[in-house]
Write the structure tokens for this entry.
Amino acid sequence: MDVKEALYMNRGEGENSYAKNSKFTQKVASITKPIIENSVHSLFSKGFHPSKLLNVADLGCSAGPNTFSVMKTVKETVEKECKELNCQTPELQFYLNDLPGNDFNSLFKGLSGFCDQTQGASCYAVGVPGSFHGRLFPRNTLQCPLAFSGLTSNEGLPLNKGKIYISTTSPPVVREAYRTQFQEDFSMFLKSRSEEMVPDGCMVLILHGRQSADPLDKESCWVWELLAEAIADMISQGLVAEEKLDSFNVPYYAPSLEEVQHIVEEEGSFAIERLETFALEFLLDKEEKETKGEKLGKDIRSFTESMISYQFGEEILEKLFQKLTHMVVEDSAKESMNATSIIVVLSRISG
Ligand SMILES: C[S@@+](CC[C@H](N)C(=O)[O-])C[C@H]1O[C@@H](n2cnc3c(N)ncnc32)[C@H](O)[C@@H]1O
């Protein structure tokens, strides 16, 4: 599977769109807002000259309410800092990056209100299609990259019969291949940003991760186990060929905090200013379990549908996601499931 082609969040504003089904990521973004504010504050306290242009990149921006709330947080914090320092606000250049299949059209439509130049700091926005595992920007231009993403891997893995992620039945080689791929991808990500960022520039990363040292921990595998089971059900109904499932592995990895720390230290371009995890229950609202399970089913559909459709065809989507939602409702009634985020604040080491 060519991830650059096959991976995008569901487009538009319809019932199954990412924009309408990203409540969980919105919650994560609201929890991490003070960290972005603090990082902007620390840029100013390190002597960033306020009258200059501030280049900010959102890596894996998607198209939805979160993209704008992150931009708004940066803009308001810059305005507040400048007011306190009694100096002119810089112009803000936002680089909005995602893979080429991202719904940049919806994103740009939503921007017209945000980039209204009549209030506060002037804001400009540019779309940057491409993978953040490689270079995206000219050398030495970025002061403040922000990434909120599950980092993807570039290739699928064979040998993982009946499963689509690391699972108890996966041979050790699968676990090792996922770990190695993440190590390569994340190192490339850091190396590319280190070339693009100015010395002392600040980067905030929010990644899906895991609390446990064990990659088989249910928390990081749960969604993918259920999805594999739902696909197996489609096979038993003769709707999908078995080989299609056996050759499909999701381009996703939930690292532990220690793995992230090790890779950052080994790559060597960044100092770790902050590194922590927090867990949130998958099902957020205070509604009936069934309604919550259905919402989670839609949420999962909004970020997996493009890959599923690429590998198994559009025809199975309705049946498959109905089955998945049913399983999510049943499973989440038995126990509540958490999802972990890892927050990393890095500053570019000078020299
Ligand atoms: C969990 S979504 C988060 C979207 C958005 N930042 C938010 O907070 O709602 C992850 C985003 O990262 C993007 N992404 C994944 N791998 C990428 C890569 N290698 N390069 C650029 N974007 C990527 C996905 O397409 C998706 O839009």
